[in-house]
Design a protein that fits this description.
Elements lengths: L3 E2 L5 E5 L8 E4 L12 E6 L2 E11 L1 E2 L11 E2 L8 H13 L4 H8 L2 H4 L9 E6 L1 H6 L8 H13 L4 E2 H5 L5 H10 L3 E6 L16 H11 L6 E7 L5 H14 L3 E5 L6 H11 L4 E4 L5 H13 L4 E4 L11 E7 L16 H12 L2 E6 L4 H8 L4 E5 L10 E6 L5 E2 L2 E2 H13 L2 E6 L7 E4 L16 E3 L4 E3 L6 E3 L12 E4 L3 H11 L5 E4 L7 H12 L5 E4 L12 E7 L12 H13 L10 E6 L5 H7 L3 H15 L6 E9 L4 H19 L6 E2 L3 E8 L2 E10 L2 H16 L8 E6 L6
Parallel strand pairs: 11-16, 11-17, 12-14, 12-15, 13-14, 15-16, 18-30, 21-28, 21-29, 27-28, 29-30
Antiparallel strand pairs: 1-6, 2-3, 2-5, 4-5, 4-7, 8-9, 8-10, 19-20, 22-26, 23-24, 24-25, 31-34, 31-35, 32-34, 33-34
Bound molecules: adenosine-5'-diphosphate and zinc ion (2 copies).
Length: 742
């Protein structure tokens, strides 16, 4: 290829938020400032102009430089992504084979995807002064606006109110604020992006195992060191995070902590604030745009010593990172399943390696990938095998459904156990892994079954709202009274969901306060937070819910956990099915008996002899992991192989498989040409649920025993697929290290 050089015009390679696996060349105008790598620029693209990020600056391009279009303007003086973070993002784009412009875009706060300046506007707040409080009673009533503002600020208390929020009260507010300010009745302040410090809680004396784990991390702060902190539920992993973070902060560096759920942040934020006297920033997708921008800035400027966030917070810029922590590292929500499909846990480990600092992956049920890394010595293994003090792990009893009558989902021992808790004023959890009333509705006369018209899936009956709902595409229709096929009024629900269990419990225990938690009742993080505080305050006796209930919450008064109907997890078509089941059961069982009262777990099952259940009953995660790893090894599955899944979908039934067959032929050809015999391409197959939301889906698995050849193959394969005409008739994507195989 000929490189056309020219001087003095500089060529700038820009990442644009487009689904293209390449950079775009532009030239600087001769007299223009040459932008630095990592800054945002505005460039022409066809007839639009778009914001891109400069990835490199050079003198040449594959096309003659004078044919390149010119940059419109340079938005920043400082790079948006400092060089170590940019390096991580480029690695991530490369590793996941995702278009680099979309990766960089995903890492930017929304405010910066628009043309907002890099530094966020400070948010001016007002709070009421003591004189203002005093004067409120005497101020003549005709000063309506002043009264309104003072009342609003009095309600807001020390937190104060943002100026924008006060202005909603009236358009002509500025003179009112000025007058109140002149009188000394109110005062402005700038609300920092970080949470203030100074809430000291109790100090905990570490157990021997905790102490050993802390020393392990603290002794390794100077370089890259990945740790698995494997501690049973309630073993005090958080205390280890806190000590390790304290040591990092003492060295003047920052700690970044990832949690799987927004709902888990308030609890962890509280514990960090109690233990560490430092400013802390919280970053997650539920934050308003401006607030997230400010938190991002605080992390980047080093104003926040600790940054706590969910998946995408892994890309938070840090002035001086010293420690990374991934809590509940096994949690599937670290994997983004759409668009830019990355795993935040794995990116965090890479980031630690690039930054040369330790990373702690904590869990009671580590992923098999992490277990294998620890077993083979790539990760250092820190174990917390018991709960501190006198607290014991709960006893687990398996209830054989073959011997017991089930009434609307519940067996007699479960009902008896809940009754005991109600009498003692303790809380119970009833875990059902399906929401709705019944996962299937059918006609007893003609055998008709409710099927989604857009998916290969059955409709779930939601009786409260009288709806049939598809849990895969969200399609909703009124539940018919008569059978659509034979008109008989003989429709009935089969199986149990959370609603049905809630109804049963309400009938059996009419006086009990029952709280249902699933994605139907909890549509917003704030609702979950409210529900969690209801539970902690003791205002609910029985909690019915899906895995929303199982994730890391600390409920002191829960002494009983009942698990209903999880058997289908044993026979999942996905090779990770048993692993997920074991994780979910261990996590939900871990909610029992965290305080001084011992806990009990009851599991209703048709397969009490299955090793997944017997090991659960013995709290033998390690035994489970060992057996599961042996099975994976025998089958050649991850972590003993690397997978990449090419998916295609289309409203046209035949298009996905057609495309994938072409892709497979092309792939076979490339494997020969590139001499990559260790890479295997399976036959294209329809996805397990072939039709979803009106689209037909198919997939093609590529695998290799090791990473390098698979990635070499993907590089040339994807480049070739991008040029394939058949590729324009489907939507296709590549999923590296897929978590879900259907
Ligand atoms: P995990 O994160 O492993 O689930 P936590 O850190 O939340 O566990 O600890 C569980 C409970 O045990 C918390 O209430 C915590 O305050 C308490 N705890 C942890 N470590 C100790 C300790 N060394 N001594 C006494 N209590 C502890
Ligand atoms: Zn019928
Ligand atoms: Zn559907």
């Amino acid at each position: 290829m000929i490189a056309h050089t020219a001087s003095p015009a500089k060529v700038v390679q820009v990442a644009l938020p487009l689904p293209a696996r390449r950079l775009f060349d532009y030239r600087c105008a001769d007299d223009e400032l040459i932008p630095r790598v990592g800054v945002r620029v505005i460039v022409p693209l066809q007839r639009r102009s778009v914001i891109g990020i400069v990835c490199s600056v050079g003198d040449s391009s594959e096309v003659p430089v004078n044919r390149l279009r010119k940059l419109n303007s340079v938005l920043d003086e400082q790079p948006v992504f400092a060089s170590p973070l940019l390096k991580l993002l480029l690695w991530t784009a490369h590793y996941y084979h995702h278009p680099v412009g979309e990766v960089l875009q995903a890492a930017l706060p929304v405010a910066l995807r628009q043309q907002q300046p890099l530094a966020p506007a400070l948010s001016r707040h007002w709070r009421i002064c003591a004189d203002g409080e005093r004067v409120r009673a005497e101020l003549p009533a005709r000063y309506v606006l002043q009264h309104q503002v003072l009342a609003a600020l009095a309600t807001a208390g020390d937190e104060g109110l943002a100026e924008e929020a006060i202005k909603i009260l009236s358009g002509r507010l500025t003179p009112v604020l000025a007058r109140l300010h002149e009188q000394g009745w109110i005062a402005p302040f700038v609300r920092p992006a970080v949470l203030p410090t100074g809430v000291r809680g109790r100090t905990v004396h570490l157990t021997v195992a905790q102490e050993r784990a802390c020393q392990g991390v603290i002794g390794a702060l100077a370089g890259y060191a990945p740790f698995l902190l494997h501690g049973v539920t309630g073993s005090g992993k958080t205390e280890v995070y806190l000590r390790a973070a304290a040591a990092t902060l003492a060295a003047g560096r920052q700690a970044l902590v990832l949690v799987p759920e927004i709902a888990l942040t308030p609890q962890l934020v509280q514990r960090f604030r109690e233990a560490l006297d430092v400013p802390l920033a919280v970053i997650h997708s539920g934050l308003p745009v401006a607030q997230r921008h400010r938190a991002w800035w605080a992390a980047r400027e080093g104003d926040a010593a600790v940054v706590l966030g969910t998946r995408s917070a892994v890309f938070t810029p840090l002035a001086d990172p010293g420690l990374f922590i991934v809590d509940e590292e096994h949690d599937p929500s670290y994997k983004q399943q759409e668009g830019f499909r990355y795993n935040a846990r794995d990116v965090m480990v890479k980031r630690a390696q690039l930054a040369g600092i330790p990373v702690i992956l904590g869990s009671a049920t580590p992923s098999l990938e992490t277990m294998a890394n620890a077993r083979d010595g790539r990760y250092r293994h820190l174990a917390l095998p018991t709960r501190p003090g006198a607290t014991r792990l709960p006893t687990v009893r398996l209830l054989n459904l073959a011997d017991l009558a089930v009434n609307d989902g519940l067996t007699a021992p479960v009902i008896a156990a809940i009754k005991v808790r109600l009498d003692r004023g303790e809380q119970s959890i009833v875990y059902v892994n399906r929401r709705g009333f019944a996962p299937l509705v059918a006609c007893s006369d003609c055998g008709w079954q409710g099927q989604c018209r857009r998916c290969d899936a059955r409709l779930t009956l939601h009786r409260r709202s009288h709806k049939l709902v598809c849990h895969h595409c969200g399609a909703t229709a009124a539940a018919p009274v008569r059978c659509p096929q034979c008109s008989a009024e003989r429709l009935y629900g089969i199986g149990v969901g959370t609603q049905r269990i809630e109804e049963t419990l309400a009938r059996v225990f009419p006086a009990a306060r029952i709280l249902r938690l699933d994605s139907d009742t909890i549509r917003h993080p704030a609702r979950l937070e409210a529900a969690l505080s209801t539970i902690r305050s003791g205002a609910a006796d029985i909690l019915v819910g899906t895995q929303l209930l199982s994730k890391g919450h600390d409920f002191a008064a829960v002494t009983l956990v009942c698990v209903l109907s999880t058997d289908q997890g044993l026979y999942s078509m996905d090779f990770r099915g048993p692993e997920r089941l074991f994780q979910q059961l261990t996590q939900v069982a871990g909610r029992a008996g965290r305080a001084d009262t011992p806990g009990e777990v009851l599991v209703q099952t048709r397969h009490p002899g299955n090793p997944a259940y017997t090991r659960l009953a013995r709290h033998d995660f390690s035994g489970f992991a060992k057996a599961a790893l042996a099975e994976r090894q025998a089958a050649g599955y991850p972590p003993f192989a690397r997978f990449a899944l090419l998916r295609a979908q289309s409203p046209v039934a035949t298009a996905p498989l057609q495309f994938l067959r072409t892709a497979a032929r092309l792939g076979q050809h490339l494997l020969v040409r590139e001499q990559l015999p260790s890479v295997q391409l399976m036959d294209p197959v329809p996805s397990l649920m072939e039709r979803r939301a009106g689209r037909y889906r198919a997939q093609l698995l590529a695998s290799a025993a090791t990473e390098a050849p698979l990635h070499r193959f993907l590089n040339c394969w994807l480049a070739a697929l991008e040029g394939l005409p058949a590729g324009r008739r489907v939507r296709w994507s590549i999923d590296v290290d897929p978590q879900e195989m259907y």
